[in-house]
Amino acid sequence: MTNFPHDFLWGGATAANQIEGAYDQGGKGLSIQDVLPQGALFPPVEQPTPDNLKLEAIDFYHRYAEDIALFAEMGFSAYRFSIAWSRIFPQGDEESPNEEGLAFYDRVLDELEKHGIEPVVTISHYETPLHLAREYDGWTDRRMIGFFERYAQVLFERYGSRVRYWLTFNEINAILHMPLQAGGILTPKDQLRSQDLYQAIHHELVASARVTRLAHQMMPEAQVGCMIIAMPTYPLSPRPDDVLAALGAEQANYAFGDVHCRGEYPGYFLRVLREQGVELEITDDDRQDLRNTVDFVSFSYYMSACETADESQRIPGRGNVIGGVPNPHLEASEWGWQIDPVGLRIALNDYWDRWQKPLFIVENGLGAQDRLVEVDGVMTVEDDYRIAYLNDHLYQVGQALEDGVDVLGYTSWGCIDLISASTAQISKRYGFIYVDRNEDGSGTFQRYRKKSFHWYKETIAAGGANLTG
Question: For this UniProt entry, which segments traverse the membrane (predicted)?
Answer without folding.
Answer: none
